[in-house]
Automatic annotation (TrEMBL):
It holds the Pfam family GGDEF. Keywords: Phosphoprotein. InterPro entries: CheY-like_superfamily (IPR011006), Diguanylate_Cyclase (IPR050469), GGDEF_dom (IPR000160), Nucleotide_cyclase (IPR029787), Rev_trsase/Diguanyl_cyclase (IPR043128), Sig_transdc_resp-reg_receiver (IPR001789). Residues 166-296 form the GGDEF domain. The keyword Cell inner membrane does not apply. The modification 4-aspartylphosphate is found at residue 53. One of its GO terms (molecular function) is diguanylate cyclase activity. One of its GO terms (cellular component) is plasma membrane. One of its GO terms (biological process) is cell adhesion involved in single-species biofilm formation. PROSITE patterns: GGDEF (PS50887), RESPONSE_REGULATORY (PS50110). This is Diguanylate cyclase (GGDEF) domain-containing protein. Residues 4-119 form the Response regulatory domain.
Length: 296
C-alpha cells in the first residue's frame, strides 16, 4: 500500500518540486497551501508523513503542529522545511516533537533519505503499538477458556463506578461436582470441560451485550446489561450444559451440570455488591441440591 505524504507550503513552486519528486518515488501526495487549510484537511488526508513549511502568512508551521498535537490520537511524523537556518528556529521545531528539520533549498537526495527513515520509524512504532495492544488484551483474557479474567473485572468495575458502563444483573455459575471429573478422568479432561463450558457461554450470551469471565477454578461470572433477561440466560446456560457428558462413549461417562446464582437488584451501589449477592444466591443453589437457579 502506497504511503501518503501531506505537503503544507504556501509557495506553489516548492509544492510543484516536491510533488513531482515524491510522486516519482511512488508516494501518494496531498497538498495544503496554507496553515488553516492544513489544520482542516488533516483528518481527511490521514497521512503517513507531513512535510510542513515553517514560515506561512496565516499560521506558521509551528502553530499548525501545535494544533495537531492537541488531538489525542495524533501520531504522524513531521519534517519541517524552512528557509530559516537559525539554530533557534531548528531547536524550536525539534523541541515541539518534529522528526526532523530541513533547510531550503534542500537536497532532494537527502530529503528522500529523511522521508524513507521517517516512514520506517512510523511503521516500527505502529507495529509496537499493535503488539502492546495485543499484550494488553492478553493480560485480560483467561488462557484456558478465552473468557475475560479477574484483572479485566476490575476494569469493568471502574467503568461502572465512573459512569461509563451500566449493568443491571450478575450470574455466578459454578460446576457441580467438578472434583469428580478431575479425579475420574484427570486434569486434562477437566481443563477441556472448562473450555467447553466457556464455549457454551460464548454461544448462549451475546458478547456485545454481556461480559463473561472465568471467575476462578470452575466458577464463571456473567454481567448483563438488562436484568429482564437474566433468568432466561441462566436457564439457557443450564439447558446447554445438560447436554454435555464427560468421558469416552464406550467407557464411563459423567453428566455435567452447573448451579447458578442470579442477582438483579437495581439498588446495588457497586459491581462488587452485585457479585456478592449473586455469590450468596449461588450458595443457595448449592445447598438446595445443586443443578438449579437461585435469584436474589
Amino acid at each position: 500500500m502506497r504511503k501518503r505524504i501531506f505537503i503544507v507550503d504556501d509557495e506553489p513552486h516548492n509544492i510543484h518540486i516536491l510533488r513531482v519528486f515524491l510522486t516519482s518515488l511512488n508516494y501518494d501526495i496531498y497538498v495544503a497551501e496554507n496553515g488553516r487549510q492544513a489544520v482542516e484537511m488533516i483528518d481527511a488526508v490521514a497521512p503517513d508523513l507531513i512535510l510542513l513549511d515553517v514560515m506561512m502568512p496565516d499560521l506558521s508551521g509551528f502553530e499548525v503542529f501545535k494544533r495537531w498535537l492537541d488531538k489525542d490520537d495524533f501520531d504522524v511524523p513531521i519534517i519541517f522545511l524552512s528557509a530559516n537556518v537559525q539554530k533557534k528556529a531548528m531547536l524550536e521545531g525539534l523541541q515541539l516533537g518534529a522528526f526532523d528539520y530541513l533547510t531550503k533549498p534542500y537536497d532532494l537526495d537527502l530529503l528522500e533519505m529523511k522521508v524513507s527513515i521517517a516512514l520506517q520509524q512510523k511503521m516500527k512504532l505502529s507495529n509496537l503499538k499493535k503488539d502492546n495492544e495485543q499484550l494488553a488484551e492478553l493480560a485480560y483474557v483467561d488462557a484456558l477458556t478465552g473468557l475475560y479474567n479477574r484483572t479485566y473485572l476490575e476494569v469493568v468495575a471502574q467503568q461502572i463506578n465512573d459512569g461509563y458502563k451500566h449493568y443491571e444483573s450478575v450470574l455466578m455459575i459454578d460446576m457441580d461436582n467438578f472434583k469428580t471429573i478431575n479425579d475420574t478422568f484427570g486434569h486434562m479432561i477437566g481443563d477441556q470441560t472448562l473450555r467447553d463450558i466457556g464455549n457454551i457461554l460464548f454461544q448462549v450470551l451475546s458478547p456485545y451485550v454481556h461480559v463473561t469471565f472465568r471467575y476462578g477454578g470452575d466458577e464463571f461470572l456473567v454481567i448483563l446489561q438488562d436484568s429482564g433477561v437474566a433468568l432466561a440466560a441462566a436457564e439457557a446456560i443450564i439447558a446447554a450444559v445438560d447436554q454435555m457428558q464427560v468421558g469416552h462413549p464406550s467407557q464411563k461417562q459423567i453428566q455435567v451440570s452447573v448451579s447458578i446464582g442470579v442477582s438483579h437488584s437495581l439498588d446495588c451501589n457497586t459491581l462488587h455488591q452485585m457479585i456478592s449477592q449473586a455469590d450468596s444466591a449461588l450458595l443457595g443453589s448449592k445447598r438446595g441440591g445443586r443443578h438449579q437457579i437461585t435469584v436474589k
